[in-house]
Design a protein that fits this description.
140 residues, mainly alpha, 6 helices, elongated
Length: 140
C-alpha cells in the first residue's frame, strides 16, 4: 500500500522540463570540458569514455529529446514563439559539429551549450510570462 501511494505521488509530480534540459546541457558541458582532466588515465585500464563516439551521440540524443519535449510544450501550450526552438536547434547542430570536427571541439562546445541553455531559460521565462497564450491551434 505504501509503495502504491509513493508511486501515485511520483506520477502526480510535475517535472520542470526546462530545468531538466538545462541540467542535461550543463552535464554535457561538464563531460566535454572537465571529464578529460580527471579521467585521462582510464585508457590505461582499457576504458575509453573520453573519445567514445557512441557515448557522445548518446549524450547529444538525451539533450535533444529532453529539450524538444520541454520546448515543444512551452511553444504549444504557452508562448507560441519560435525563438527558443531556433536557439536550441542551433545549439544541437553545433554539438553535432563539435563531435564531427574534432579539432574544433573546444571552440564549438561553449557556444553550443550557451545556445541550449539560453533556449531553455528563455522558454522558462516566456512560459511564466504567458500562462496560456490562446491562438488558432487552441482547442477551447
Amino acid at each position: 500500500m505504501v509503495a502504491l501511494l509513493y508511486f501515485y505521488s511520483l506520477m502526480s509530480t510535475k517535472i520542470n522540463w526546462d530545468a531538466l534540459g538545462i541540467t542535461a546541457s550543463v552535464a554535457c558541458a561538464i563531460h566535454c570540458a572537465i571529464l578529460p582532466l580527471f579521467l585521462s588515465s582510464l585508457p590505461l585500464f582499457g576504458v575509453n569514455i573520453i573519445e567514445n563516439l557512441r557515448f557522445e551521440y548518446f549524450m547529444i540524443g538525451v539533450a535533444f529529446f529532453v529539450g524538444v519535449y520541454a520546448l515543444y510544450h512551452g511553444f504549444k501550450k504557452h508562448h507560441h514563439s519560435w525563438l527558443p526552438l531556433l536557439l536550441f536547434s542551433t545549439g544541437i547542430v553545433l554539438l553535432i559539429a563539435k563531435v564531427s570536427f574534432h579539432p574544433w571541439r573546444y571552440i564549438l562546445l561553449v557556444p553550443s551549450v550557451l545556445f541550449i541553455i539560453t533556449a531553455h531559460v528563455l522558454n522558462f521565462r516566456m512560459c511564466r510570462k504567458h500562462n496560456h497564450a490562446h491562438s488558432d491551434d487552441c482547442n477551447h
